[in-house]
Every structure is written in C-alpha cells, then in structure tokens.
Amino acid sequence: MKYFDFATIEKIASPKEWIDAMSIALREYSPEKYIMPRRMHLDYHNNTFLVMPCLSENYWATKLVSFCPENSSSGLPSIYGTVALMSTKTGEPLAVMDGRIITAMRTAAVSALGIEKIAPKNCCSLGIIGTGFQGIYQAIFACSIRKISEIWVYDKNENNIHEFKNIVNEKYPKIRIIKAKDSSEVANNSEIIISATNSRHPVFKNSKELFVNKTIIGIGSYKPDYREFPEQLFKQADIIFVDTVHGKSESGDLATPIEKNWISEDKIYPVSDLLKGNITLSKGKTVFYKTVGCALFDLFATKLIYEKQQNG
After folding, report:
1. DSSP labels for the chain?
2. pLDDT tens column, 265-296
3. pTM
C-alpha cells in the first residue's frame, strides 16, 4: 500500500487534469455505476467529523474529515483529512492519501469547471473572500481558466492574506493581488466572486448592487445553519447551480433560501445539466454556483493520483 503525501499530490497532476477528472465525475455519475451514500456527520461540541465513502466497479474510496474551527486560534489548520483507496474486486488497500490537499484541489477543480462554463470569456478580475488554504487553491485554479489580471482579497486574518499573496504570486507573478477593506470592495471590483469561509452568517452586505451580472461561487456553508450569502443574492439570481443535489438540504446557502421562499427549487439546477448541454446560459446574467462536494469527487481524485503514479 502506498502513501501519497501533500507535496506529491500537489505536484503530480496539473489543474487541467484535475478539472478534466471532475468533469468526467459530474457527467458520468449515476446510482447504477457508483454507490455513494450521504456523508455521515458526527458533531462533537463545535467540531464536525465526516465519513464519505464511494464505490465504483474498480475502486472504492473513503475520506475521513475533521473540521475544528477553533484550531485557527492556535495556528493549526481547521480541516484535516485522510483518504483511503481500495480495490473493489479484491478489497486490497491500494493507497492512503493526504485528504486535506485532495479536498482543496478537487474542490477548486469543481469550482473552476463552473467558471469555465458560466463566467464570460473576457473576465479578468477575481474576488476571494477567505484567503486560507481553500481560498489559495480556488484562486490558482480559477486563474488557470480565465486570464485574470487582478485578484481582490479580503480576510480578517492578515497572515492568511500574506501567505495567499506569496503562494499565488509564485505561480502567477504578473497578477496584481489587492487587499480590500471589506467584502463589498471585493465584490464591487470583481467579475468572479468566490467565498471560501467557515462563516455561519453572510459575509456580504444585503445589497443588490454587489452581485449584478456576476458569477458567484460559494464553497463554505457545509451545514444547514451556515450561510455565506445574503437574501438579496438569491432574490436576484437569474439561475443557480449546485454540484450535487443533496446540497439543497445540506447547505444553508440553499436550504435557508428555499425554506424562506427567496428562491424556488425549480431555479436550482445540477451543474451536470450545464456540462451536458441541457442548459444554455445567455449573457449578462447573475449566476450563483454552490459547491458542497461529495465522495464521488474524492474517488475520482484518488483514482487520478494513483493511476498517474502507477503509469509513471
């Protein structure tokens, strides 16, 4: 059994390969081909622990994730994870992988896939709310899809912003990274907006002007009582996409707007419909794309890493 550490996973495949793998996952998924129960949530005080299995004809993968939001006060990551990959045919353990980087890169790939299909081709400005570990990879993958010339960022943690600048500029030295005074300044200056926070409450003002004709992506809000976006966004969004349909009940960024009748469920589409050409977007629209993730993405991510290493 092989162990794949952070550095190996980060370098073994390009953003394009990650995005292609997630595109296949979203296009191919069916209950007949993949057995994927809902993720199990175990809550202990303020901490959340997840168990995420998925099984296919050749592989089965299970990810264990811990989310401990108070870790940041002691300088520790708030999210840890481990993914195990096994053979479906024999049950043989094949690999154990660092789940933190797997999660960051497959989530960024799913977001970038949405940007590729939703955001206008000439977009050149990106906004990131939450410049921590997830936000870094969201920016790196978004910049691989569009010719971004400037990134507006906001985070309450100055150290996060400093590390974000160093890592992103190492890969994209010509991109200007601008620290905003608040989330409104980020939104006002960005054509694509990504929120990657652990906030329980909206991180934007409830203002229509912030979101008009923009591509907005939410990757936080992983529980029904967490919500990154305000009421006004949902009332003005022309169309809403979600990576997996269970997000409509699992994420507060969809469950709350549905419950309060800010949006109707028939305005929420699986992003796979867009990938398959079942939906065509017209120009000049306000589009919200919510990603909540699923074990299928982890299965395809570990498959990508394992097979690349096996094939040299």
Report:
1. -EEE-HHHHHHHS-HHHHHHHHHHHHHH--TTT-B-PPPEEEEETTEEEEEEEEE-SSEEEEEEEEE-GGGGGGT--SEEEEEEEEETTT--EEEEEEHHHHHHHHHHHHHHHHHHHHS-TT--EEEEE--SHHHHHHHHHHHTTS---EEEEE-S-HHHHHHHHHHHHHH-TTSEEEE-SSHHHHHHT-SEEEE----SS-SS-S-GGGTTT-EEEE----STT---S-HHHHHH-SEEEESSTTHHHH-HHHHHHHHTTSS-GGGEEEHHHHHTTS--PPSS--EEEE----HHHHHHHHHHHHHHHHT-
2. 888 999 999 999 999 888 878 999 999 999 99
3. 0.93
Tokens linked to 296? 């299928």
Place of tokens 């065509």: 280
